[in-house]
TrEMBL record, chains A, B:
Residues passing through the membrane, by range: none
Species of origin: Cloeon dipterum
Matches recorded under Pfam families: P53 (PF00870)
InterPro entries on file: p53-like_TF_DNA-bd_sf (IPR008967), p53/RUNT-type_TF_DNA-bd_sf (IPR012346), p53_DNA-bd (IPR011615), p53_tumour_suppressor (IPR002117)
Cofactor binding remark: Binds 1 zinc ion per subunit.
Biased composition (Polar residues): 1-15
GO biological process entries: apoptotic process
SUPFAM superfamilies named in the record: p53-like transcription factors (SSF49417)
Name of the featured protein: p53 DNA-binding domain-containing protein
Subcellular location(s) of the protein: Nucleus
Length: 400, 400
DNA sequence: AAACATGTTT
DNA sequence: AAACATGTTT
């Protein structure tokens, strides 16, 4: 099925109709809210995972968050969909270590991905964050990938267990369905694990419809919930985003981020009973390092509906259900690597930590040479070459 | 229960929030759409009904619509509710005979009614119609009366029977419940019978919640249905009105008007499952001549829901249902008169047809004298005196 | 028309 | 938690 015809659609977003603030680039609504102090990784140990182009130390997850670092919280980033005034309810709270060493970016970039040049709306960005790094990318494109891969940073997400063991708890997570059942507007703690965390990493959360007939459409709030007089819409810029990131909590084992779903799965003229998933991507500078997907149902009775769906699954009726309305129940199976490529795995980024300026320059020059030698001619090669030349210029390579 | 505190509420209407057109008098959205040629009454015969102040001929209903006359169609008239920017989803298609004889208005006016001076928004009015006659009145006040009375003009309304005898017809009418069950947006023909029709008469339709806790609130469309990109909202001025009058059909027995309900009874943030009724008032110059009330449920399955409610009624569960959600099931019982008063029945208007200018003036002078003699001192008396003096001025009473 | 889906009331 | 209310799918 070809969904690229969405490029020619005349879709408009309700925020325009309702006179919500829209800048010259309405698709980009990136936001950074004030930082929260967290802990940096104390030491780096050799990495595990993809060997190519990687020279890096590893830090165990137990040690990962023991220092002080900032966890930046970035708000929904709509994607560039190639047609006017259409946005996506996406959220990506970036995790940033502020005291990281300088690193050389050894990047493999998927030339086939729907990559959109970075642009930002200044008024959506917190000045403390170098938001030029947060870009539209394949995670926010018209048809975001739902392929799960943990990547070299062993990216995992886990829904925290609710403390309410009654049958009226605000959320329940079905392991067998890999599906979150949650009431509208209730915070759910999501726990992210990342090995070898880097200061520039962040997690992006993008809502996507499971049904291929809808998965090229952005997940936006319904007209009812868009009412500007809704208490929860006051003093909030992204009232059209279904996924809202409410804050984040530091921890020693993982980073916990609170997400709330601001529409029901049944919301009329909104999600409209379509199956929904959240795609979490671990990213750096717009490159996807890992991806996790969780199906979500936002409903009034999470317990009842979870029981019904699990019963249906066990009765073998799941296939009909999942194919039609819910989409594939987001297999928990994980591939450690992203799709392979002549020049190495795509869509991933690796970092070579160095603790002095001279070595940094030496490694950057080597990386530049490798790109010039190994990359096929094309825009990707040019971008990568520019990257290293920019680094070398900055580091005073111009001096001699 | 005292509902007058609604006067102090800070309610606002969604049309303001959504930036819909709102004139300096947002409560008044009177509209007249182009006239439809119908038939005038061929002759006048003596009247039946309330004797006081009535000198008039009667025309049988069979003869009533045999000539040519215009049936004006007027759109929802919001009421003045005594607080800012609140409007009511009201509709009143006026029936006007264009070739009627001049008449003296012998009016009894209820001094206790919440009468609001007439004002109009020029751009809402069809120029062919003297819209200064269509006013805010007690039918559009904060707490419109739901008392049924046929009045001296024997005002009756009847829901046309659907031609679709399947169980999926667009509407069904329950006689026992006096309740219309209708799908959203589907036209329902309402048949109005009026004895002794006068060219200035019209029918107003106002939606009202049956539950006293809500009956002082206007019946407005929900945010979902207010979307300006809804096809049915294009080129329509009153998208916030639940009751839409789609046209009217001449007939020899009665006037048929098509009404469509533009929200479901279940619409979130709108009717929100509250019981609803339509109050039809036969009026002239803002005076109420008769009133009929029909309960309405706008739903996806009119047949099923009618059966369920009728079954509930027969099981004696109706009382609980009706009191709580549906309100009194709008008794079909009818009183021919409106509440009595020392100077005669209130809220009704009678017409003395005369076929020459001189007699018209004589009768008007007599009416003036009667008002001066019998009416208690007060604003009502002043208004009535002004009315007759205005008539006499117009008829050249000034000449001598 | 019956079964189902899904929010609300009891 | 079960029953009910009410839109949708079969
Ligand atoms: Zn919603
Ligand atoms: Zn509605």
């Amino acid at each position: 099925m070809d969904h690229t015809n969405g490029l020619n659609s005349n879709e408009t977003t309700p925020d325009n109709r309702l006179g919500l603030p829209s800048g010259p680039l309405p698709n980009d609504q990136s936001l950074l809210i004030p930082d929260v102090v967290m802990h940096p990784p104390p030491r780096l140990t050799p990495p595990v995972g993809h060997p190519s182009l990687v020279h890096q130390n590893e830090v165990s997850l137990h040690q990962q968050f023991q220092g002080n670092y900032y966890l930046h919280h970035q708000q929904p980033n709509p994607h560039n969909q190639g047609f006017p005034v259409s946005s996506q309810g996406a959220q990506y709270p970036p995790m940033m270590l502020q005291n990281g060493n300088p690193s050389i970016l050894m990047n493999t970039f998927n030339p086939m991905a729907n990559y959109t040049p970075a642009y930002q709306q200044a008024d959506n960005c917190n000045s403390e964050f170098n938001n030029s790094r947060i870009v539209e990318n394949q995670a926010t494109c018209e048809l975001p990938s739902m392929e799960v891969f943990t990547g070299n940073y062993d990216f995992h997400v886990n829904v925290a267990r609710t403390l309410d063991d009654s049958k009226r708890s605000a959320w329940e997570f079905s392991e067998v369905l890999n599906k979150l059942f949650v009431m509208e507007g209730r915070n759910v703690p999501m726990q992210f694990k990342v090995k070898n965390i880097n200061p520039s990493m962040y997690v992006r959360a993008v809502g996507i419809y499971c049904d291929p007939d809808s998965s090229n459409k952005p997940v936006l709030r319904c007209p009812n919930h868009l009412r500007v007089d809704e208490p929860l819409n006051i003093d909030y810029k992204f009232i059209d985003h279904v996924i809202r990131c409410n804050n984040q909590q530091p921890g020693s084992e993982y980073v916990t981020v609170l997400y709330a779903m601001m529409c029901r799965s049944s919301c009329i003229s909104g999600i409209n009973r379509r199956g929904l998933a959240i795609v979490f991507t671990l990213e750096i500078e717009g490159r996807v390092l890992g991806r996790q997907v969780i199906a979500v149902r936002v409903c009034a009775s999470p317990h009842r509906d979870r029981m019904l769906e699990e019963r249906r699954l066990s009765k073998g009726e799941a296939s009909a259900l999942l194919v039609k309305n819910e989409g594939p129940s987001v297999p928990n199976g994980v591939s450690a690597d992203s799709p392979s490529d002549p020049i190495g795995p795509l869509d991933q980024m690796y970092f070579v930590p160095v603790n002095n300026c001279d070595d940094y320059v030496v490694l950057a020059r080597l990386a530049l040479d490798l790109v010039k030698k190994d990359y096929p001619e094309g825009p990707v090669k040019e971008i990568e070459i520019q990257r290293y030349q920019s680094i070398l210029n900055t580091m005073g390579e111009n001096q001699h």
